[in-house]
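User: Hi! I have a protein structure encoded as tokens and I'd like to know what sequence might fold into it. I'm fairly new to this, so please keep things simple.
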């Protein structure tokens, strides 16, 4: 199905891939991620087999990059402080921010009394803006413990909050469906 001229969406190994064909391209193929979806720019006459081969190669490369270049605990703390400065006027200063391999049902958690934040290691594979959304959520808990209106106002200072929440809900839904099959 075409979404704009030269653009089509295909399922390759169970994952949607955006394919943009161009008559100007003769040999080169490039790839990037758009909202977590692989987008390939390919020559107009690239065959289906070659397209699938390139899509798999780029998906593998992106997976390897995501798993190997995830933020360290120090990077996570640095990012939390940047987000605090941007969205909370530096009013929030966590004592520690770290990844947790033990969080399988939550994306993040905060112990307000100790000023500590933990993010699920599952987030390492997700886009940075989704990780930022969870960090802002947890930072807001250092100000407001519940999920009431005051808390929501704090969290909504991050402009991609609704988008990050929807992304995570989609991931959670997919995981529940896999668990039921």
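Assistant: Happy to help. Inverse folding works backwards from shape to sequence: for each of the 181 positions I chose a residue that suits the local structure. Here it is:
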């Amino acid at each position: 199905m075409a979404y704009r001229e030269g653009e089509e969406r295909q399922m390759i190994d169970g994952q949607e891939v955006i394919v943009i064909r161009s008559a100007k391209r003769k040999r080169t193929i490039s790839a990037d991620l758009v909202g977590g979806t692989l987008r390939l720019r390919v020559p107009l006459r690239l065959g289906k087999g070659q397209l699938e081969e390139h899509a798999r190669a780029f998906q593998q490369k992106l997976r390897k990059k995501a798993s190997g270049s995830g933020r360290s605990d120090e990077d996570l703390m640095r990012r939390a402080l940047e987000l605090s400065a941007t969205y909370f006027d530096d009013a929030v200063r966590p004592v520690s921010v770290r990844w947790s391999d033990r969080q399988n049902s939550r994306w993040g958690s905060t112990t307000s009394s100790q000023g500590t934040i933990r993010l699920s290691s599952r987030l390492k594979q997700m886009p940075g803006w989704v990780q930022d959304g969870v960090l802002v959520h947890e930072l807001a808990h250092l100000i407001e413990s519940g999920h009431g209106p005051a808390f929501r106002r704090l969290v909504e200072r991050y402009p991609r909050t609704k988008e990050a929440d929807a992304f995570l809900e989609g991931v959670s839904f997919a995981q529940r469906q896999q668990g039921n099959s």
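A useful reference point when you look it over: The first strand starts at residue 7 and ends at 12. Feel free to ask if any position seems puzzling.
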